[in-house]
Automatic annotation (TrEMBL):
Residues 230-297 form the HAT C-terminal dimerisation domain. This is HAT C-terminal dimerisation domain-containing protein. It comes from the Eukaryota. It comes from Lithocarpus litseifolius. PANTHER family: OS06G0658400 PROTEIN, OSJNBA0013A04.12 PROTEIN. SUPFAM superfamilies: Ribonuclease H-like. Signal peptide: none annotated. One of its GO terms (molecular function) is protein dimerization activity. Pfam families: Dimer_Tnp_hAT (PF05699).
Length: 321
């Protein structure tokens, strides 16, 4: 039985296309497992069909192994378990992978992600949060090792400038939460970042006084305290932080930037599309102008009525996001 026969059998039982995900794609293993789970019933119907029985004559051992795996409840439970404890990691990386202003959210997302992964593993193993899990120990070491390589003082400073993390609403969501200025590690990294950024002693002294006033809640508007939870961080700094001009300028820079280079990588893909082998003599300035026009035309196309009413959005500027 050749590949086309197996594909015809699959298409008969499943209306979706089972496409192989390239290793270069973001979280290719997780995406593939999600696709398999989505077509679970179709695969099971195919494995118990008469067509599959004829396929067994071609390679009995391989066909039986695949059938046992597809019909195995334990195997599907394992798939569900993998997707469940990887979901917080996948969601966090997905948020950080787009061109969204999220530098000030990374530190908190990381802490929440670790707690969710631990809860999923402990629930699967029937353990309490305070009990030891060997598998969780391995996963925790991998996550912490990765975070240690990526965490910078800039993350801690951006985390400290998010007014939402000082609000009563945010602190009351989890009894383990504390404000950034009560966290010793965050405070040390924040001070390190400020000393690097403000080389002039006078400017550093000014920003320290402004940050102390920000922590003390000495705002010109009485609504500033209640709006820390209601407003977006960048909007809050624009509206309520006129008394801290130096700190406000710094907050604008940090709260308005993404935390990854994914947007630049997509821009390189557009550049590769324009500066191809057939047009390799194009000047750099000309290619840059074409990339600018191409990207902005896609952004402007989002205002079209056809784009709004189309579910596929084939011409979106950032397909994965």
């Amino acid at each position: 039985m050749n590949h086309s026969m197996r594909l015809a059998m699959f298409n008969e039982f499943c209306p979706l296309k089972l496409l192989q995900v390239a290793d270069t794609r973001f979280a290719s293993v997780v995406v593939m497992l999600k696709m398999l789970k989505l077509i679970k019933r179709c695969l099971q119907a195919m494995a118990i069909s008469d067509q599959w029985a004829s396929y067994r004559e071609d390679d009995v051992g391989k066909a039986q192994k695949v059938k046992d795996m597809i019909l195995s409840v334990r195997w599907w439970d394992t798939v569900n378990y993998i997707l469940k404890f990887l979901a917080p990691i996948y969601d966090m990386l997905r948020v950080a992978d787009i061109d969204k202003s999220c530098l000030h959210l990374v530190y908190e997302m990381w802490d929440s992600m670790i707690e969710k992964v631990k809860a999923a593993i402990c629930q699967h193993e029937g353990l309490e949060d305070d009990q030891y899990s060997p598998f969780w120990g391995v996963v925790y070491d991998i996550l912490i090792d990765r975070w240690s390589k990526n965490c910078t003082p800039l993350h801690c400073l951006a985390h400290s400038l998010n007014p939402k993390y000082y609000s009563i609403e945010w602190l009351s969501e989890n009894p383990k939460r504390i404000s950034p200025h009560w966290d010793h590690k965050i405070s040390m990294e924040r001070s390190k970042c400020l000393e690097r950024y403000f080389e002039d002693e006078d400017e550093l002294k000014v920003v320290k006084f402004e940050f102390a006033a920000f922590l003390g809640g000495r705002f010109p508007s009485p609504d500033a305290l209640t709006n820390r939870w209601a407003l977006q961080p960048l909007v809050w700094w624009q509206y309520h932080a006129s008394a801290f001009p130096t700190l406000q300028t710094l907050a604008f820079k940090l709260l308005g930037q993404p935390c990854s280079s994914s947007c630049a990588e997509r821009n390189w893909s557009t550049y590769k599309f324009i500066h191809s082998l057939k047009r390799n003599k194009m000047a750099a300035a000309h290619a840059e102008d074409l990339v600018y026009v191409h990207s902005n035309l896609r952004l402007l196309s989002r205002r079209n009525e056809e784009y709004v009413n189309t579910s596929t959005k084939m011409w979106d500027i950032a397909g994965d996001s």
